[in-house]
Amino acid sequence: MAKVPGQIGNDFCPQSLFLYGNWKEDGTPNFGLFCWFSYAHVSDGEEEGLGVMACIGEEKLTKDLIRKSGVFSANLVSERLLPLADYYGTTSGRETSDKMKLLPTVEQGRVLDVPTIAESPVSFELKVLQEHHLAEGSDLFVCKICNVMIEEGLRDQSIPFAERLLLAAPVITPGEQEYVSLRGGSLGKWGEPRKKLQEG
Ligand SMILES: Cc1cc2nc3c(=O)[nH]c(=O)nc-3n(C[C@H](O)[C@H](O)[C@H](O)COP(=O)(O)O)c2cc1C
């Protein structure tokens, strides 16, 4: 099939979704939804290892809290978590004082002082090594992975990896503001899955 010039963008390039978690000053958690997230080999001056790159656009509560503490969690969004994740991604923490009226099961990070989500199949605990200002409101955080917690069953190598991946059921967002399941079905447009929640 012939290729034609496209609009500059990343449609058809799947991105996994993560909920970034921080403690607020009053000791309660805040979560926001993010997909501009990838991996890098990093060094903190003492040791080298796997790290992440997290791009955060515009000023927002998550960015305020990451700058304040220098740490955050990144919790992989599964299909089960999607309605809550969609709510966290379409509700501003700065502008909505009761944003966290809806909560997952929140746990304390094992290595860093960050809130993590029990229902998420994979939770990273991240320490910021560098912040790069890229453009107006756009900042890149390069982080060291200090710990990862993973659902026990996902480590069972007697089950083929592809099957375990479907068990984890990560949600991808490959373009046109749509959530898609790894099995291929649409899970709705951004802003739709939250309608399943009882927001009260
Ligand atoms: C599907 C989806 C993906 C998102 N990905 C990002 C992202 O990668 N970077 C970003 O800065 N904001 C992203 N957002 C927007 C944030 O989730 C949104 O600004 C949210 O209010 C952040 O939470 P906070 O206000 O509590 O900090 C995304 C939103 C949605 C719905």
Largest sheet: 7 strands, antiparallel
* Strand ordering within the main sheet: 2-1-5-8-9-4-3
Oligomer: single chain
Indicate the mean pLDDT. Answer: 97
Bound molecules: flavin mononucleotide
Indicate the radius of gyration in whole angstroms.
17 Å
CATH architecture field: Roll
Principal-axes geometry comes out as: globular
Number of strands: 12
Give a brief outline of the structure.
This protein has helices at 61-69, 82-89, 161-168, and strands at residues 18-23, 29-34, 37-43, 48-57, 71-76, 106-108, 115-117, 122-135, 138-150, 171-175, 178-181, 186-189. By secondary structure, it is mainly beta.
Provide an overview of this structure.
With 200 residues, this protein is mainly β. It has one domain: Roll (Pnp Oxidase, Chain A). The protein has three helices and twelve strands; from the N terminus they run ββββαβαββββαβββ. The strands form three sheets. The chain has a seven-stranded antiparallel beta sheet with strand order 2-1-5-8-9-4-3. The chain has a three-stranded antiparallel beta sheet with strand order 10-11-12, with no helix packed on it. Strands 6-7 form a two-stranded antiparallel sheet. A hairpin with a 2-residue loop joins β8 and β9. The longest helix is centred in the N-terminal third of the chain and has 9 residues. It is globular. The chain starts with 17 loop residues before the first strand and ends in an 11-residue tail after the last strand. Flavin mononucleotide binds next to β2, β4 and α1.
